[in-house]
Amino acid sequence: MKSFVRPSIPWLVRALAFGSGVLVVSAALGASASATVNTTSSVLKATKAAIAKQSSVHLVLKVKPNSTSGTEKVIGDLGKKNGVESVSLGKSTITLKVNSTFGYVDGNSSGLTTLFGLTSGQAKKLGKNWMSLKAGSTEYSNFESGLTISSITGVLPAAKGTKLSTEVVKGAKLYVLEWTTAATSSAPELSDTLTVSAAGATLPIEVTMAASGGGLETITFSKWGEPVVVSAPPAGSTTAYSKITAK
User: Fold this and answer.
1) Nearest to 241, CA basis, from 139, 163, 171
2) What is the pLDDT of residue 35?
3) How is the chain split into domains, by residue range?
4) Model pLDDT for residues 171-217, shown as the tens digit of each residue
5) Burial class (CB in 10 A: 0-12, 13-18, 19+), 245
6) Who wins on pLDDT, 150 or 37?
7) CA distance 123 to 108
8) Alpha-carbon distance 35 to 127, whole Å?
9) CA separation for the pair 49, 28 (Å, rounded)
10) When comparing pLDDT for 11 and 245, which is higher?
11) How far is CA 58 from the centre of its chain?
12) What is the CATH number of domain 9-25+27-245?
């Protein structure tokens, strides 16, 4: 059975990049960055550790393809075990939620097919209900991995081939990491830039991916550590994933 559940951020970034795919949708927190944290490897290690100390993050992802298609936008609040994202492209919209017991998907017909990957028949079965995925299932695990804060480390590059520099923006010192992502059969070569705070907790601020030939994807991060509340859909308004995908 094909799973339509979106995977985690690393795949999401590549798949959303410029319309190339369908969305199947410091070492201690608070430690000041010091002069000793001045290599690509040490900055990446500190950033990964700082993310692990956080309980949540707010993100905004925008994809501006080099084509006639419109801008795709994802707005999300990701916690340790819960998260919510809204995705839009023109009139197509979906909302994704996860908590410790279920994952949920809602959207209009075009959003469910274009953005999430359901067939028109499956979207019709779902109707106006939310699709639910029960904790413990493979589909739920895949869903949770992309809607919780652990997925954020997926934006971090490998140290090899990544250039490190610093800059000051509005009085704030930043680490700037730059690298290139090779082209694949479904995505162009990308010139990537990640900015990370160099004062206080070493946390990501923004990552941009510019495609060869045009197109730009940007993810901004903010509100680290703020509470994330995910409400379940009203009782009686959900339909199980197995019923939607059953033949």
Assistant:
1) 139
2) 44
3) 9-25+27-245
4) 889 999 999 988 888 778 889 999 999 998 999 999 999 988 888 89
5) middle
6) 150
7) 9
8) 57
9) 7
10) 245
11) 10
12) 2.50.20.20
